[in-house]
Amino acid sequence: MDNRDKLIKEIRGESLGDSSIQSSSEELFQNEVIRPILKLQNDLFIASFLNYISKYKRDFNTKSVESKLSVIENAVQKDIKFRNALKGMIIALFTTDEYALYIKNSSSLNKRMMNLLIERLKSQVQLFDQSN
Predict the structure, then answer these.
(1) Cα torsion 39, 120, 109, 44: sign
(2) N or C: which end of the chain has fewer CB within 10 A?
(3) pLDDT of 53-104, one tens digit each?
């Protein structure tokens, strides 16, 4: 398992975001683990959401920007199957030690992961228009 963990950390890259001595363990986990994974997996998240809207939201391109942002938020927050697929794309790139930390506080960390992912998808909403 050491080889896998080492490889994952190399692929993910450096920590993203500000961390200080006052940072909570969740904030540290977010900046050291979640943010680099979200950045690495960005193209996969985009492809996944494009697939989602092609299957379930065929009228996406006719919606206002505000409505599109709402669709993104609702898809990630309320579509449990889609949400679980996205969580799997993130958790798969945890090391075994990170996974052990994650399961101790999964509820709070899931909330952080999904909120960061929603903001990432919303900030790239223009990509969903061009690709359909």
Answers:
(1) negative
(2) N
(3) 999 888 888 899 999 999 999 999 999 999 999 999 999 999 999 999 999 9
Tokens 């075994």 correspond to what residue? 96
Going by the DSSP 8-state scheme, the letter that residue 16 receives in this structure is: -
Q: Which residues contact 88 (CB under 8 A, 6 or more apart)?
A: none
What are the percentages of helix, strand and coil residues in the chain, rounded to 5?
80, 0, 20
List of E strands, the chain: none
Token representation of residue 62: 């006719």
In sequence order, what are the residues at sequence separation of 6 or more whose Cβ sits closer than 8 angstroms to the Cβ of residue 21? none
Kindly give, in sequence order, each residue whose CB lies less than 8 Å from that of residue 59, ignoring residues fewer than 6 positions away: none
